[in-house]
Design a protein that fits this description.
By secondary structure, the chain is an all-alpha fold. It has a single domain, classed as Ferritin (Up-down Bundle). The protein has eight helices and no strands. Helix 6 packs antiparallel against helix 8.
Length: 195
């Protein structure tokens, strides 16, 4: 009986040692931020808020502002007008997913809240750019706005990276598009500053 008890104790000790030497990694979920289930309502809310920034911008893109934009001297790399809507709709959706990933991440609440505050600032600057470009028809003020927007997107990506890397990666297409839009805005201002 004592022999069996000693073997049992040795077996437990060996089991503990093997766990330490060869730890079993928990299988990660395919969805980033695996611990929490997807809250589809909150996810939809984040996407909707981002799309709302696009709706605010579209209010100022009326027929008269479209005619004004058409009358501007443009560089050779200006995209076709029909391209802007699908690109922005897609980018706003991706931005919403990125913000949701940060929101649902378990970790330091200060880092998460700080990242989401920067995200909110860049989203407001995004809407403000449309007001300045199409509403005020100011190529200079919209250029200043989009430069500020670019820096806040970069800061947002850095903050997101500290909380959830996947969220930061999702923001990269947005940064590239705004970089292109800033270049276009600058060239439009240079070509039309005296008109």
């Amino acid at each position: 009986m004592q022999k069996h008890a000693r073997l049992g104790r040795k077996g437990c000790a060996l089991g503990e040692i093997s766990k330490k030497l060869f730890p079993v990694k928990k299988r990660k979920s395919a969805w980033p931020g695996a611990k929490a289930k997807i809250d589809w309502l909150k996810l939809a809310g984040f996407v909707a808020v981002c799309e709302l920034a696009g709706v605010v911008g579209s209010i100022f893109t009326n027929s008269s502002s479209s005619a004004w934009y058409a009358s501007l001297s443009k560089p050779f790399f200006t995209p076709a007008a029909w391209l802007f809507a699908p690109v922005w709709i897609s980018l706003y959706a991706i931005m919403g997913i990125a913000a949701y990933l940060v929101f649902q991440k378990e970790g330091k609440q200060g880092d998460i809240l700080g990242a989401l505050k920067i995200f909110a600032v860049q989203l407001m600057l995004n809407a403000l750019w449309s007001i300045m470009f199409f509403g005020m028809r100011s190529l200079l003020y919209s250029l200043i706005c989009i430069i500020a927007l670019w820096f806040f997107i970069l800061l947002c990506i850095w903050k997101f990276y500290k909380v959830k890397k996947e969220a930061a990666y999702l923001m990269l297409p947005y940064l590239l598009w705004v970089s292109f839009a800033a270049l276009l805005n600058m060239v439009l201002w240079m070509l039309n500053m005296h008109s």
